[in-house]
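for the writeup, i need someone to sanity check this before i put it in the appendix. the sequnce is what the collaborator sent (i think, or maybe the updated version? ugh). structure was predicted straight from it, no edits. if anything looks off just tell me and ill rerun, i have time this weekend
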Amino acid sequence: MNQPDPNANGMRLYPDVPPFLGARYLRSSGIQKLLLRLLPLRIALVLRTELQLATLRVLSWRVTIRYQSLRNALVNIGCGGRGRPGWINVDAFDAPGVTCRFDCRKRLPFPDGSCRGIFSEHFVEHLDYTEDIPFFIAECRRVLKDGGVLRIVVPDGERYLRAYCADGWTELRQLRSLSPPDYRDPNNGAAYHTKMELINEVFRQADQHRFAYDAETLCVLLERHRFQRVERSAFGRSIMPELCIDSPERADESLYVEAMK
């Protein structure tokens, strides 16, 4: 078994394994280490995040008032640091370009029919499929005007599983830009021993990802919520060209689906 490097920085004390959350426990001391013995770090991180989001929800009435006269807007939900000029760039956490901080899991702060387009890239997979997604999709439809378009981009579960089933690592390397010879991941610095380690990282991402989608599932979901013209799209192609703000570096691994109200 490899021994931890006491001089290592960041999350990865073991240089040849996927991101190692337990490294934080090894680096902790005093009261922090005692607390982590009682409560797993993954749970502590979730509790901290949920407390932050609860505080944000308490203050959300201010955001709703700000947008009560909104008309014909373009909205980027879960934008992270990729806010766009002229858009309402929504995220629960502060980052460059975020213009609206809001917890979007169960409601949106916009009036009925106030948006002409909604874009969401690599956010929907972070929502629970049974608890959050029904609210989120219904809210997207509510705030869209008639003829408005919802564009959702998520990791393509089918593409990853097909690559997993193929011989060797060639197809997975195309999706994830893995660097040989140790199949190191540019997204997190991990080196994967097996293809299943990579699949779990993509589908679970340290418990941050809640559901893996293929085109059929995402299209059926949108159709169940009474969206029209639900169809698989592609990088840089849209029935509303304004919504083509896709990240080029995510194109190989992404599934693109659009729907119209």
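The chain is about 35% helix and 15% strand. Residues 1-15 have pLDDT under 50 and may be disordered.
thx in advance!!
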